[in-house]
Design brief:
about 325 residues, mainly alpha, Farnesyl Diphosphate Synthase, two-stranded antiparallel ribbon, 15 helices, about 75% helix
């Protein structure tokens, strides 16, 4: 376990047990798929954020665990659906669900995770939780559609980039923290702080992902230079485009518009990003977000949850995949 997980190991063990029970099914194929997905479930960062949020403002409750399970179900569903949309073959170093069971079954599996989350909230009458998560799913879909539109037109601005990652990644982190606060009966001031912290971590997380598209690619669960291959402009490239001359910029756009390119063409874009210090610019944003996060964290009471979130933020910056 990583340090931030070790600090709240008891809570994570209980979450794992309840999450497994939630996914239990007598349908043989679903059981096989959910078992495979659970085995490759990653670091569980978002449900951990929900648990930590409750602990920061009060105490972890039964509703906290239900909210953490809901967040993980929604997140897993979006990953399964994203892999289908992106035609991704690999997820976290393993074959994606759609690679093994093909698109139709993968779509239905994602729908099953969504339905399970909704069922959990309705059965326990967590209507406030249901309202928050419905709003978040709507925003995430909006973010995906805006990114698809901007990918086609290649006219992304920095303001639009941050809006997209706020919708695609930030709002789910924001919701994870807010749900934890709501489950622990946080006051308005603490809820506002938790929401801000979640949004900061979501943006930090995504920009770090952008950097990892160029660096430490042997450790990454996704293919190297994947954003470029999909015609997407991430932050290091967006920052570098502003400094390129017209010939360099035109060639980059030609590569991004083509469906297939040679590896040398992808490397050409990477070399321009290095030349114009796009990665360094992204790291400056991460450092600013890190400081913003620490300022918020410092306002909460001392204890293991504060230690865990401090460790988690550090992990998000230092991670290699």
């Amino acid at each position: 376990m990583i340090k931030f997980q070790e600090i709240i190991k008891e809570e994570i063990d209980r979450f794992d047990s309840e999450f497994k029970n939630t996914l239990s099914t007598k349908a043989l194929l679903l059981h096989k798929i959910t078992k495979y997905i659970s085995k490759n479930s990653g670091k569980k960062i978002r449900p951990i954020c929900t648990i930590i949020a409750s602990g920061l403002v009060n105490s972890v409750t039964e509703k906290t665990y239900r909210s953490a399970i809901l967040i993980e179900l929604i997140h897993t569903a979006t990953l399964v659906h994203d892999d289908i949309v992106d035609d991704a073959q690999i997820r976290r170093g393993q074959f994606a669900t759609n690679t093994i069971w093909k698109n139709k079954i993968a779509v239905l599996t994602g729908d099953y995770f969504l339905a399970k989350g909704l069922e959990l909230s309705v059965l326990k009458k967590d209507y406030d939780t249901l309202g928050l998560i419905s709003n978040v799913v709507q925003k995430m879909v909006e973010g995906e559609l805006v990114q698809i539109e901007k990918t086609k037109k290649l006219n992304l601005t920095e303001l639009e980039y941050f809006k997209i990652i706020e919708l695609k990644t930030g709002v789910l982190f924001e919701c994870a923290f807010e749900l934890g606060g709501v489950a622990a009966d946080a006051n308005t001031e603490d809820l506002n702080k938790l929401r801000s912290l979640g949004l900061i971590l979501g943006i930090l997380f995504q920009i770090k992902d952008d950097i990892l598209d160029y660096t430490n690619i042997s450790f990454s669960g996704k293919q190297p230079l994947n954003d470029i291959k999909e015609g997407k402009i991430n932050f290091p490239l967006l920052s570098s485009l502003k400094k390129m001359n017209i010939i360099e910029r035109s060639r980059v756009f030609r590569i991004l518009r083509k469906k297939t390119n040679t590896q040398s063409q992808y490397i050409y874009i990477k070399e321009l990003v290095v030349k114009y210090k796009g990665i360094e610019e992204a790291e400056l944003i991460i450092q600013k977000k890190y400081n913003d996060a620490l300022n918020i964290i410092s306002s909460f009471k001392d204890g293991k949850y504060k230690k865990s979130i401090s460790s988690l933020v550090r992990f998000l910056i230092d991670r290699k995949k």
